Request: fold
Amino acid sequence: MTHRVLVAGIGNIFLSDDGFGVEVANRVATRSLPPGVQVADFGIRGVHLAYELLEGYDGVILADAVPMQEPPGTVAVIEPDQDDIGRMAATPEDPEPAFDAHNMSPDLVLSTLSRLGGSVGRVLVVGCQPASLEEGMGLSPPVAAAVDDAVDLCLALVTEIMQPAGKGTPG
Reply:
């Protein structure tokens, strides 16, 4: 059985380091990938990402600029708790989410997916601490220097997700 994995770059290229995820996805797309792996630049189109995830994936890797209170350029893997993702859906206090279809954070994308009746097997965020989210094109030097490491990390995570159960763990 072939697993399906989506590597999604998200962010706004017009807000400096917020374009990190887009750059990572563009570079991952140039690599040789196993069957079942799709790479896409979703930019600020969070609703489109939620609808794409309805197609059914064993895992999604979201590349994004993520404030983590770390030095700029720090890359980390964040795996949201599946129970937390489920709780992101409507609550009695917030039956209808307020969102801008062109500016959705990963948690809001996953909440929208849940509200649409979809789910994804495993969610991983390859996040990078931005130096600047001010208007402007181009990544800051520390974030630009982190892109290749983030690409390698995405590829390792693809391998991990694609690994058949019971066949050991990579590296």
